[in-house]
Design brief:
Radius of gyration: 21 Å
Strand content: 5-15%
Largest sheet: 2 strands, antiparallel
Structural class: alpha+beta
Helix content: 40-55%
Length: 104
């Protein structure tokens, strides 16, 4: 995990990078990375990721969504997530009760 912009209290926000691999779509959306040889990041990309790449905007949106969802789910701690869902539901119920009683 890396760090990104400074969070509110001056602490860096944690970030994670995710890659889409192997071939994510049913069609052959993979392109030769050489098509991007003029890009200043080309040498770094091919050294770190090889000579094939996918244009995300050319991918089937459902395939891309599935890949992103799978990567996010790998990062979620299920017990903590469930606890957050319970707390969120309680907060929403409390707000509904307060708003129902609010004078109009």
């Amino acid at each position: 995990m890396g760090t990104h912009k400074k969070a509110q209290k001056g602490r860096p926000e944690p970030t994670a990078r995710a890659a889409v691999a192997p071939a994510p779509s049913k069609g052959d959306a993979a392109k030769a990375a050489a098509d991007k040889a003029k890009d200043p990041r080309f040498k770094w990309f091919t050294a770190n990721h090889g000579k094939r790449c996918w244009e995300l905007d050319a991918m089937d949106p459902n395939d891309l969504r599935g890949c992103v969802e799978a990567e996010i789910k790998k990062l979620i701690e299920p017990v903590a997530w469930k606890r957050c869902e319970v707390v969120n539901a309680a907060e929403q119920a409390s707000l509904r009760d307060i708003l129902k009683a609010w004078p109009r």
